[in-house]
Here is the input.
Amino acid sequence: MNVQDAILKRRSVRDYEDKEVSSDELKKVLKAAQMAPSAHNDQPWKFVAVKKEERKEKLAEAAQQSFIATAPVVIAAVALNPGKKMSCGVPSYAVNLAIAVDHMTLMAAELGLGTCWIGAFSQEKVKEILGVPDDCKVVSLLPLGFSADDSKPKRRKDLEEIICNNKFQ
Ligand SMILES: Cc1cc2nc3c(=O)[nH]c(=O)nc-3n(C[C@H](O)[C@H](O)[C@H](O)COP(=O)(O)O)c2cc1C
Here is the structure.
């Protein structure tokens, strides 16, 4: 599968088959995060792969999204330096982690696996469940598994609406 196909194939999956993700598949997905670019190549991240049923249930509860626990693996993406800003004024941690997480979603698509970005969760509760230090920030949870979701067409704005030529309009 090429990058274009993976981008078009990836969609948010909110129901997962009761089927394990192999350690080889999981490693490929995590390696995609490892290879992501980051500001100054700091690689200021940790990825917590959660497979324990009880812990996944707790994460689903912390996000108030029960489908999360149906995935065989949930990956928590953790930023190690959430205070750091780029000279443009934008915090780098969210950008770094977003790229790494999206690398994982695309690699998962290539492997025939589904994912769903999860940004709605209690920061405090997730930190407590996973033992994440106070000075870090959990940026996203990423359920990973085989999709049991019906395929839905992507809803997107028209290209003309989001692209400007030469000047913001
Ligand atoms: C930063 C971010 C946070 C998101 N948080 C959630 C979430 O908490 N729960 C959820 O079901 N989907 C969440 N999504 C998924 C979006 O709803 C989804 O990407 C969007 O509707 C487009 O659909 P698609 O991913 O299938 O293309 C999130 C996506 C992003 C990028």
Observations:
- The longest strand covers residues 137-145.
